[in-house]
Amino acid sequence: MSSYTLNTMLNFVNGRLEDLFYLKYEKEYGSVKAREVFTKVKTSKKIETYLVTVGNRFGRPTCQGILSQLSTIPYFIFRNGETLCMAAIFVLTDWRQLFNQECYILTEEEVTRVAVDIISYCSKSKFNKTDNFFIKFYTDIDELGREDELESLIEQSANLETNKQDDIFVETFQLTDVLTCELSGDVGFQVLTNCGRKIVFWKSNLDQVVEAVDATTLKIKAGTKLIPNGDGRFDLLGS
Could you tell me if 22 and 12 are in contact, meaning their C-beta atoms sit under 8 angstroms apart? Predict the structure, then answer.
């Protein structure tokens, strides 16, 4: 896991990281399998006891504490890392809903830190292969992180004209990786990112920084600078 991936996951608070993991797991294994894992967790007396014990003492769930309980349940003993991780995230989500929403034992940032610890630990399972579930999940996280950064810059740039009195300065943003986009309509500089968020670019220098994949898809090269121009759009400048 890269430091960028780690920091991006830590920013996905309020259950967003857990939801993203669930969606990835469901996509890879299907809703029936995801429901099966959920049911095993919800019907386990050992997990119920663990949650009550931790909750009644206003304790804090930990990665090792949750995984140690799951390791005593036959269904999870020889499961792959992502299934064990999914189960642990279900346990953490239950604790949040049962105890933390009212008592605020942990901040949302601290709960997310536990989720990150779980994902990191399970990604190192001996049952994982080179091209495994977690590599693909981390790739998705990186893409979402880059799109969040772009969305934030767009919002800042759009508000620049109305907030000049506050001396807001929007810095140039440089892509660290290739960004794949789909053309929107018949306009050459309006694109939709992979997650459906619209980013608008000026057409200037477009041919220098993009690579056409097909009639409707293009790639913006790594190293390209996105320079906000004050009206919610960006000039593209090659590195």
Answer: no
Nearest alpha carbon to residue 39 among 121, 120, 98, 94? 94
**Could you report how far apart the first and last alpha carbons of the chain are, in Å?**
27
| pLDDT of residue 213 exceeding 90 | no
User: Can you say whether residue 153 is alpha, beta or left, with left for phi > 0 and alpha for psi between -120 and 50 degrees?
Assistant: alpha
Distance CA 225, CA 32 (A): 44
| Residue 66: half-sphere exposure toward Cβ, Cα within 13 Å | 27
The model carries a pTM of 0.67
Q: How far is CA 135 from CA 63, 83, 148, in A?
A: 20, 15, 20
pLDDT at site 171: 45
Provide the token pair at 195. Answer: 């997650």
